[in-house]
Amino acid sequence: MSYRRKHSPPKPEQQTLFPPAEVEYSNPGAIRTLSTSQLTSGLPYQRPVEQKDVDKIIREWNGREITPVVVSFRDGKFNVVDGQHHIEAMRQKAGGRDVIVPCIIHTGMTYEQEAELYARLDRDKKRLTLRQYTKAVVEAGSDANIMEVKRLTEEVGFIWALGEPTGEPFEIAPIRALINAHRLLGSEGFSRMLTLMAGAWRGMPNSLKASMLSGMALFLKTYEAELNDWTFIRRMSIVSPEEIIYLGRIETDVGLRFARIILDKYNGGGAELPYRFKR
C-alpha cells in the first residue's frame, strides 16, 4: 500500500507532481516519483557532478537496479541529498530531457542535517575524497574538531581551501596535515604554529604545503617551551620555503626531515636549541 493511500488519500483533482503545502512526509522518508525538473541539486555540501562518473553509470546501466534518490523537502524545494549523478545519467539517456525518478523524501531536516546525511551516505559508499568529505562535515557543523580547525585557521588570517584550491597566498590546501597538526598541538599550540608561519613567510603558498605543516607541527611540539616566537619569525623570514622543501627532499626520513631542517635554520648554525627529536 502506498504512503498516500495509507495516510490521507487525496481527491482525484488534487493529484499533482507538486504536493500541496500541507502534505508532510514522515521520516525515515516516503517513496514517490518526481520529475527531475522539480529537483534541486548542486548544494554547497555536495561534490560537483563529474562527467566521468556519469559515463560510468551509463555504461553499467541496469534499469532493474535503480534505487530511489534521497531527497529533503525543505523550504518548498526538493533538495537532492544523494543521487545527483544518477539523475544526470538518466537525463542524458533521455537526450537531455527531464525524466520521472523514484525518490525517498524526508521532511523536517535542516540544511546542516542534509549535509551530515550526505557526508555519511557518500562516505559509506566511498565516493568522497577527504577534501569533499571535510567540506560536507563543515557545512553540517557535525564534527567539533574539524570546526575548531577551521575556526582557528581563519582566526589567524588563513583560508582553508575545502573547495578547489586556487594557489593564492594564505590559502591552506592540505586537509589531513592540518587536522593532524591540530591533533598533535591542541588548539593553543595550533594557533601559535599558524601565527609563526604567517609571520615568517607571509602566507606564501609553498610555506603551506603538507610537508611544511607537518614539519612545523613536530618542531613546535618538540620545542614549544624553549622556542622564542619573535626570534623564529625574524630568522625564518630570511629562509625561503623553497629552500626548506629542497633540503627536505634530500633527506630520507619522512617523519622528521622538515622538522630537522627548520631546527637547523632556526639555530642559524649555532646550538641554541638542542636536538630533541626521537625516532
Polypeptide structure, described:
With 279 residues, the protein is of the alpha/beta class. The chain is 47% helix and 11% strand. It has helices at residues 3-7, 51-59, 84-93, 111-124, 130-140, 144-156, 176-201, 210-223, 229-236, 241-250, 257-267; strands at 30-35, 39-40, 69-74, 77-82, 100-107, 159-160, 171-172. It has a five-stranded mixed β-sheet with strand order 1-5-3-4-2. A two-stranded parallel ribbon has the order 6-7. A hairpin with a 2-residue loop joins strand 3 (69-74) and strand 4. Helix 6 (144-156) packs parallel to helix 7.
Topology:
Layout: H1 3-7, E1 30-35, E2 39-40, H2 51-59, E3 69-74, E4 77-82, H3 84-93, E5 100-107, H4 111-124, H5 130-140, H6 144-156, E6 159-160, E7 171-172, H7 176-201, H8 210-223, H9 229-236, H10 241-250, H11 257-267
Parallel strand pairs: 2-4, 3-5, 6-7
Antiparallel strand pairs: 1-5, 3-4
Helix pairs in contact: 2-3, 4-5, 6-7, 7-8, 7-9, 8-11, 10-11
